[in-house]
Amino acid sequence: MSQMDPKDLDVVPAPEELPSSLGGLMRGKRVLMTGVANDRSIAWAIAQAFQREGAELAFTYPGEAMEKRVRPLAEGIGAKAIIDCDVSKDEDIDRSVAELRKVWDRVDVLVHSIGYAPRGALDGRFTEVTTRDAWRITMDVSAYSLIGLARAFRPMMPAGSSIVTLTYYGAEKVVRNYNVMGVAKAALEASMRYLAEDLGQDGIRVNAISAGPIKTLAAAGIKGMRTMLGENAAKTPLRRNVDQEDCASAALYLCSPLGRNVTGEVLHVDAGQNILGVVSME
Q1: Which of 179, 219, 237, 269 has the most CB atoms around it within 10 Å of its CB?
Q2: CATH code, 84
Q3: What is the pTM of this model?
Q4: Of these residues, 61, 178, 194, 253, which one is catalytic?
Q5: How far is CA 195 from its chain centroid?
Q6: Is 178 a catalytic residue?
């Protein structure tokens, strides 16, 4: 078998298109979406996929500035509720539960796609830019918010419900300039596992999707991300990048009956990048 020139493997297209519908996989499900920032958000792709499969949707957003981005998108797919919620405030989370109870008596799926770090903490030496305030804010918003939301909405979630959060490989290995966000994602993944064990007794599953590099608003704040995206495809086993729709398909699996016995897992959607050690391009 002749060897292929690695240059010929730089970018390989996906072998087939994703199906437009899976026949109502989420029909009758009520889904609370958090973390939509714009139409390039992974959370937005998940929301669209769930809506196509028959789910009802509700959305949260943090503050007036984000409302201007989120509300038109949410209204465009018939959201049942659009709620202002700052996840760093317990009173906001509790108020969101009360608001949602006005329109729904249950939540079948909670999508946690929330992450934030001060911009200055994502550029420079980890020891220098990771201030106490940067650590506190990043951990609170990016990791603790999963626990806070799960605790608050658990009384609305019947057996068979699921929670899914979004993480990244920087939780497992060092990604330069990801810095404190990598530490927060590690805490998020550990929290996901502890929640899976705790909420399993209520019949609630909790999982995470570890997405490969994707051009999103959140990624734009990380120094060097543009270069990483440009070079990444050639460094994955499948020789391609992933996109928002790939993550949405994974969320459909995890949050539908297809994943009914899957909990506490980190599902990598990264074209296989996480399995590699040293990659030689010569």
Answers
A1: 179
A2: 3.40.50.720
A3: 0.89
A4: 178
A5: 16
A6: yes
- Does residue 16 lie in a domain region? no
Which position among 116, 168, 169, 194 bears the catalytic label? 168
Domain count, the chain: 1
Q: Tell me the C-alpha to C-alpha distance, in Å, between residue 158 and each of 107, 108, 151, 262, 271.
A: 8, 7, 13, 17, 34
Position 78 in a domain: yes
Instruction: Tell me, yes or no, whether 18 lies in a domain.
Output: no
- Residue 164 within a domain: yes
Which residue is it, tokens 């998020």?
Answer: 188
Longest dimension (CA), the chain: 65
Could you list the pLDDT tens digit for every one of the 282 residues in the chain? Answer: 333 343 444 555 666 666 666 679 999 999 999 999 999 999 999 999 999 999 999 999 999 999 999 999 999 999 999 999 999 999 999 999 999 999 999 999 999 999 999 999 999 999 999 999 999 999 999 999 999 999 999 999 999 999 999 999 999 999 999 999 999 999 999 999 999 999 999 999 999 999 998 876 565 556 656 666 667 888 899 999 999 999 999 999 999 999 999 999 999 999 999 999 876 555
Locate 10 and state its tokens: 């730089």
- Tokens standing for residue 96: 């969101």
* Amino acid of residue 24: G
Whether 168 is a known active-site residue: answer yes
